Amino acid sequence: MQRIKVALGARSYSIVVASGLVDRLSEHLPTGKKALITTKEINKLYGERVAQAIGEHTLILVPDGEEAKQWNVLENLLGDLLDSGLDRGSTIIALGGGSVGDLAGFAASIYMRGIKIVQIPTTLLAMVDSSIGGKTAINHPRGKNLVGSFWQPSLVLIDPLFLETLPTREIRSGLAEVIKYGVINDPELFKLLESKNPESLTAEDMVEIVARCAATKARYVEQDEEDRLGIRAALNYGHTVGHAVEKLTNHDVNHGEGVAVGMVVAALISMEHGLLREKEYQLIIKLIEEYGLPTKLPEIDFSEVVKVMHKDKKAESGNIVFVLPTGIGKAPALRQVGEPTIRKALEANR
Fold this sequence. Notes:
This protein is 44% helix and 17% strand.
């Protein structure tokens, strides 16, 4: 078992990572009334096991994926919480991927002006990223994650055994974020990944990998809790191009696949700026390929890619900002990048 503390004063909490934790949830959960928020599919896979582990609670099922992050779903969820009699001393438990965590976290932040939430992520992406840091949101007809709040969990419980039922493509998607952490902060994690491959990763490896990623995310959150100082922006390495690719392919390219390609493009730009050596660029590409992730852009219009990137949340006064790697395990640089340089990198990646 590994325990990582997120030090945020009165809002501090622990991230517990252990194989088999799903059967020992009651040892960690707070007392009081509880509501378990999950999807029909996850409840079918783990509902009975989790229910036995957490004891008396109210079960609330929500849609899967982005369908969960809608106004009407939030309104119905809040009504269910009221019907179940949850009070300000109660706890919401979010069991699922990023969408469930986002919805449940936002509901916890506004229900009776805020109640405790425990995040139990079931996807690799959620384990290493969205369950940590307190970003919660639902979607608006005009865009993703436009309505939300910062509401730190009171606890994050991570059991890599949940990954046993995750489709291979989703595991690889999460591994793109894992590789990102190795590049921007953790050279030992990068070396660990180099010494393995997706098929040889054991449960013990996954505990180590998830814990290292969680520790990195925790350190960034501690320095820039509400993402206002630009420090947390480093966590978006690969995301500038990645989000554009996701959007322009109508999510046929998933999040991790988009980030993988985005990391390669950002590395090309970083070499152009003299920040990254060719040898390190090749190491990044090799590792991404080793884990079954794409390194080349799909057939999309580069002009559309640039147009979408102009709307990226990191853009400054209309200028596109990239997170550029400076080495393996070294802090990246944030740079405004001109369109000619971007187009050159996109062309080189084709």
